[in-house]
Amino acid sequence: MTVQVTRTDGVTDEFARFGDRYVKHSDGSLEVVRAGTMQPATYPADGWTDVAGDEKRKPHRLFHHRT
């Protein structure tokens, strides 16, 4: 799926590899994890305004432990 990131200057960056996903961090930064590469593309909290595409899912545990 394509991930499109709109930067604060209005330019849109497009990542079009199969398996590209984005991750929004709690500090407001954005990371685009690219399929087949080691280095993700990162944007600071004030460096992007909008993102569209597939969001990376959090891993699910196989067993749920009761507390």
Describe the structure in brief.
The protein has strands spanning 3-7, 12-15, 21-24, 30-33, 41-43, 48-52. The protein is an all-beta fold. Strands 2-1-6 form a three-stranded antiparallel sheet, with no helix packed on it.
Characterization of this structure:
- This protein has about 70 residues and is mostly beta strands.
- The protein has one domain.
- The chain is built from no helices and six strands.
- Strands 2-1-6 form a three-stranded antiparallel β-sheet, with no helix packed on it. Strands 3-4-5 form a three-stranded antiparallel β-sheet, with no helix packed on it.
- It starts with a strand and ends in a 15-residue tail after the last strand.
Strand content bin: 35-45%
Helix content estimate:
under 10%
**Major beta-sheet overview:** 3 strands, antiparallel
Distance between the first and last residues' Cα: 38 Å
Unreliable spans are none
Shape: globular
Biased composition (Basic residues): 58-67
Region (Disordered): 45-67
Descriptive key words:
globular; 6 strands; 67 residues; 3-stranded antiparallel sheet; mainly beta
Topology:
Layout (H helix, E strand, L loop, with lengths): L2 E5 L4 E4 L5 E4 L5 E4 L7 E3 L4 E5 L15
Antiparallel strand pairs: 1-2, 1-6, 3-4, 4-5
